[in-house]
Amino acid sequence: MKFYRYKIIEASGQKSTGIVKLPYNDTMSALALLERDGSMVIYVKKLGPVLTFIVKLATLGARRKLSRVLQAEILSNLSMMLSAGVTLTMALEEVSECLEAKEIKSDFKDLITSIQGGSIFSEAAKHYPHIFPKTVIDLVKIGEETGNLDTMMKDASEHLKRMQEIVSDTRQALLYPGFVFFAMGVLLVFWFYFVIPKIVNLFLEMDVALPPITLFLISASNFVQNDIGYLIAGVILLVMAFGFFRKTSRLFRKATDWMILKLPVSKTIVSASLLAYITEYLSLLISSGVDIVKSITIMRESVGNEVYKDKMNLVKEGLLNGEGIADSFANALIFPSLVTRMISVGEMSGTLSDQLAKVAEDYRRKLNLVVSTLGKVIEPVVLIIAGAMFAVIIGGLLLPIYDLVSQIGG
């Protein structure tokens, strides 16, 4: 895709100038495309590397990824119009009119121009991943190959809605424990920075002998008071380093993904979320007529966990080596017996897509149940941890007072 600066006189006689992104490397093709609707081109020129970089930089912040809800709505509207006999370009124009963001409208205009220039929808749309994610592009390709583009867009819309439910439930489940432990950390810093120093100064003025636990609290309090800036900077650097290595190192991603799957709370939540996603997506692909090996290949690329990606590779290798579908999943040694049994039933009865859909629904229910009950489950653990921490603090503060009272009484 190249950027072209143009100036034209439209068929209505109105002058128009702007910058458009086209799937051509030569100016003549761009000229022919701009003249297709009866416009007269005054000039059209391909932008050089520097101007192209500036244009991309200027639009980088504006083109944020659309929410899954809005993506699903766009696909649903396109599906309805296509099924009613509206042409694809006209349907895209109608959808564009309903959008508020000017940058997204501009993207739709470029997309329509690319299609009018001869590009197929899936090829043109893949340049706009913030509007059409890869999972949607894969489904659109299937629709183009089978001649059921409207149906696949509807299926893609429903798929995105279900994925949004899974992501929303997962975030909600992980948010509660994260917030609780963050609040506990802030409270500890408050105690060590404001409360404990005042009480400790009182002990020092009275020349009270301090037990080891109180000395530990003093050391911790001094660290927080004197090095709080370094502590905050260290936390920020750790978060930035974590994000950097998650993006750049597959080995680091795999290690952290493996750790997430081993931690008590996150293991249940993330595993249920991943299994719901995998079985849901596979069910959709298989019901669309995609063979199992290609379905595994497409689905693997969209899984957000490196451990499961490797396991899906093992499943694919098993299938290519002649193993059955259920055996291939079982030999990957990560899928629960429920999943492999249901796959086996579907494989033998020819209802694999239906069985996978049932498994996906079951894991969505489990995830929803985890969200609704997590607070009650984690509350005793939080109380025990918080109680232990503050017992240490209170003990460290009360022991010197007890010794002082004993000395006075003696």
Explained architecture:
The structure is a single chain. The protein has 410 residues and is mainly alpha-helical. It folds into 3 domains: 2-60, no CATH class; 68-132; 148-410, no CATH class. 76% of the residues lie in helices and 6% in strands. A 3-stranded antiparallel beta sheet has the order 2-1-3. The longest helix has 58 residues, at 352-409.
Condensed summary:
With 410 residues, the chain is mainly α.
Write the layout of secondary structure elements.
Elements: E1 2-9, E2 15-22, H1 27-34, E3 40-46, H2 49-60, H3 68-83, H4 88-97, H5 102-116, H6 121-125, H7 134-146, H8 149-205, H9 212-248, H10 250-260, H11 264-287, H12 292-302, H13 306-320, H14 325-331, H15 337-349, H16 352-409
Antiparallel strand pairs: 1-2, 1-3
How does the major sheet shape up?
Answer: 3 strands, antiparallel
Secondary-structure-based class equals mainly alpha
Which residues form runs of ≥5 with pLDDT under 50? Answer: none
Write down the overall geometry.
Answer: extended
Roughly what percent helix? over 70%
C-alpha termini separation: 89 Å
How many E-type strands?
3
Indicate the radius of gyration in whole angstroms.
30 Å
Mean pLDDT: 86
Assess the beta-strand content as a share of residues.
Answer: 5-15%
- Count of alpha and pi helical runs: 16
**Oligomeric description of these chains:** single chain
Q: What sequence of helices (H) and strands (E) makes up the elements?
A: EEHEHHHHHHHHHHHHHHH
The figure for the number of domains is 3
Spatial strand order of the main sheet: 2-1-3
